[in-house]
Design brief:
Length: about 220
């Protein structure tokens, strides 16, 4: 069974709450005069096109983030190590919040949250899913099963390795979006996301070293 079919109840609940709050905040912002409107007169801002980097990034990164949150929940429950649990907590909160924001923007733009088109098409190199991995950096179903079965140091090392790969691909995607997006929302979020994930990659390299493991 794919990882999508085994998402924990806590993940579903947390995602639903964050999404509801984020949609409310986004809709509040939408009804205010927008600085991005033509002539700056308070008219409605242009909505990103379906094939835009803004829509593609928001949609794809929401899926990417969802798996990161799932992996963080998994390791949180499989180790007592405070450093790893703290990192997992940060990932759960940060990426669930960002995911809610992106889904909220898609809602406000009246764009679907999923598409039949291949992921990453907006970057010019669409990808095909393999063993549940929908995009570069995403863990496969087999790897997630290994993480579910692991405990203690084994779970910590596997999580840090999987999340390092996940973050590298996420940072690449975010950098591409920051350079190609047409909205201030996506440009700002993507640039900040790339910086944060690069910082966490460095942190995880040190954590793996502390455990006598390589990335």
């Amino acid at each position: 069974m794919s990882s999508a079919g085994r998402t924990s109840p806590s993940l579903v609940w947390a995602g639903a709450v964050v999404f509801a709050v984020a949609v409310g905040l986004v809709l509040l912002m939408v009804v205010r005069p927008s600085a991005a409107s033509p002539s700056g007169s308070g008219g409605a801002a242009a909505v990103p096109a379906e094939g835009s980097a803004d829509v593609g990034f928001a949609r794809d990164m929401s899926v990417h983030h969802q798996q990161a949150v799932e992996m963080a929940f998994l390791v949180r429950d499989r180790t007592d190590d405070e450093a790893v649990r703290r990192l997992a907590y940060d990932i759960i909160n940060t990426q669930a919040n960002q995911r809610g924001m992106m889904l909220g923007w898609l809602e406000s733009w009246d764009r679907p949250k999923s598409s039949d088109r291949p992921p990453m098409e907006w970057m010019g190199h669409p990808v095909t899913a393999s063993d549940g991995s929908l995009m570069p950096g995403m863990a496969t179903d087999t790897q997630l099963d290994r993480l579910r079965a692991a405990r203690g140091k084994g779970a910590e090392v596997l999580f840090l390795r999987l999340m390092t790969v996940h973050h590298r691909a996420g940072a690449d995607m975010a950098q591409a979006a920051a350079g190609a997006a047409g909205t201030d929302e996506i440009t700002s979020l993507a640039a900040g996301m790339a910086r944060a994930q690069e910082s966490e990659i460095s942190l995880m390299a040190d954590m793996l070293k502390d455990r006598g493991a390589q990335p």
